[in-house]
Amino acid sequence: MLPKLTLLLLTTLALTSCNNPISETVNLTFEKDLIPEGIAVDAKSGRFYLSSLRKNKIVRARVDGNNAKDFIASNQYEYQAGFGMTIKGDTLYALSNGLPKQNNTSVLLLLNIKTQQLIAQYKISIPPYAYLNDLAVSKRNEIFITDSESNRIYKIQRPNSKLEVYLDTEEVANSNGIAISDDHTKLYLASAKGIRVVDLLTKKILNQPDKDYSGIDAMKFYQNSLIGIVEEGVFRYYLNEDGTEITSKKAIILFDKTYKSPTTFDIAGDSIYFIKNVQLDNFNDSTNAIIDKNKLESLVLLKYKID
C-alpha cells in the first residue's frame, strides 16, 4: 500500500492534470468591434490571420499578439464580410459574402501571405442567395466550398476560374465545416444530417446520417480524427481505420460563460488556435452594427495543446 502522503500527492497531480489543460491566452490589440469569423495560422512564420465579418477586411499578427496590423484593408479587392479561410503553401484562401440576402454576392480571394499581393479573385453570384461558409484545398489544387444555405458543395479546379457544383443532395444539406483526409481520398462535411464522409473521386457518400454529430461549425482533420467546434465546446470525433465512420467522440474544451461565440479555429502542429470571444451575440448582421458598444471586449486568442 502506498503511504497516505504519496497517495494524496498522486491524487492531487491527477486532478490538476485533468482540470488544468495545457492552454495559453493572448490579449490582442485589434479593434474590439472586429467580429472575427475565419482564422488561419501559418506555422512557418508564426503568424495568424483573422477575417472580419463587420469590417470586410483581414488582419494578421504574430501568435504572441505582437505586430498586429491589417493584411488587406476594408473592401480591398472587393472583399466582403469575412468567412472561412485556410492556408496552403504561401497562399491564403479567403471567402467573403454580402450579408444582406437581396442581390447577394460572394468573393473568394487568393492572396500571397509573403507579399500581400492578390493571386486570384473569384466573384460569385448564385441566385437567389448563397452563404459560402468554409473551404478546403486538396493536393490537386481543388478548392471545395460549402454553402450553408443549400444542399450544394462547390468546387474550383485551379488554375481554372469556373465554379462548378461538386455535390447537390439533401444528404449534405446546410454544410458548414469541411475537411480533407491527409491522404486526400475523403472529404468530410459538417452537415445538418451530421458529419458526412465523401469519397473525393467518386463523390459517393460512405456513411449513414447521424444527427448526434450535427451542429458543427468549423471542422479540421487531425491524426485520423476530426476536431470540430459546436455550441457547447470543442470536440474530437474519432474515425475507424478506413476513415469512413465516426466511432466515438470526446470533449476537448467545454465552454463556460467566458467563451463568447467562438466560431472557427485552426490547427498548427499539435495545437488548436481560436478567438475565445468573437462576440457574435453583440452584432446585428442585418445592419452591420454593434448592439451594445459598452459590452465590447478586447479579443483573446486561445491556444490549446491537443492531447
UniProtKB/TrEMBL annotation:
PROSITE patterns hit by this protein: PROKAR_LIPOPROTEIN (PS51257)
SUPFAM superfamilies assigned to the protein according to its UniProt record, in alphabetical order: Calcium-dependent phosphotriesterase
InterPro entries reported for this sequence: 6-blade_b-propeller_TolB-like, SGL
Annotated ranges, domain SMP-30/Gluconolactonase/LRE-like region: 36-191
Entry-linked Pfam families: SGL (PF08450)
Descriptive protein name: SMP-30/Gluconolactonase/LRE-like region domain-containing protein
Species of the source: Emticicia agri
